[in-house]
């Protein structure tokens, strides 16, 4: 470690925050890129009632970058000097960057969904089925709508699906209508169904998946969710939830450090931390 008085501090704030992979990943990458004397990354558990004081502290201490996770992505917004246009439309900030005492909020979550898909196929003109209507669905939905895809949102609570669909010019459906995913080109799961320890569960019956589908699961623990295993068995193309972390992180890393992080560097680092075997 080569921390000096010039080292810039970046951090993640959330409640809870202990599970965050940010400090392990980013500090490892600072080392790999040989910039560990320039940047250090830490985590802080910040409760909602302390968020205003926290942002004042960030400003006062010249913290370079702040990653915001649950439940702060909306709450931080009023305390910032500027909000990037996309983040304003999504209504959530997951990245704050400080320059000359000014705090600007960004949203890089939507990159995490759009970019991995665009490595495989264009979204324009495609039919996309989005499972879930929470925070992750919102960021994904704005990206999908932005690319000119036709979007249908399936959610357990229909009113939430309807509300998000109205904002995005999308269709809303209940889980009883889930068989409708058969006509989609791309299926994206943003619900928490299948997440460890409930890793035998899946948000989608296997028989609804075909070999024509591209299936993306935002759940990344376990790496091979039941949905990913079913989709592979059905001959579909799959994108694991780790890809979302990778592409979101690359965008965030650039905002904090100015460095273009190679995808492979990020992927190798994350897979090593999560004990994911190469090629699995
Ligand atoms: P995130 O920020 O990760 O998107 P969230 O905002 O709490 O988390 O959203 C969770 C999503 O998973 C919601 O769409 C939720 O459905 P409801 O809107 O009906 O709550 C969905 N979800 C969670 N558990 C589910 C379950 N057991 N079956 C179906 N959907 C579920």
Structure, explained:
Helix content is 35%, strand content 19%. With 280 residues, the chain is of the alpha/beta class. Helix 1 (22-32) packs across helix 9, helix 4 crosses helix 8 (241-257) and helix 8 (241-257) crosses helix 9 (263-273). The radius of gyration is 19 Å and the shape is globular. The mean pLDDT is 96. The structure holds 2'-monophosphoadenosine-5'-diphosphate.
The low-pLDDT segments are none
Broad structural category: alpha/beta
- Fraction of residues in H or I helices: 25-40%
* SSE topology string: EHEHEEHEEHEHEHEEEHEHH
The biggest sheet, with number of strands, parallel, antiparallel or mixed sense and barrel status, is: 6 strands, mixed
How are the strands of the largest sheet arranged? 2-1-3-5-6-4
Please give the radius of gyration in angstroms. Answer: 19 Å
Number of helices: 9
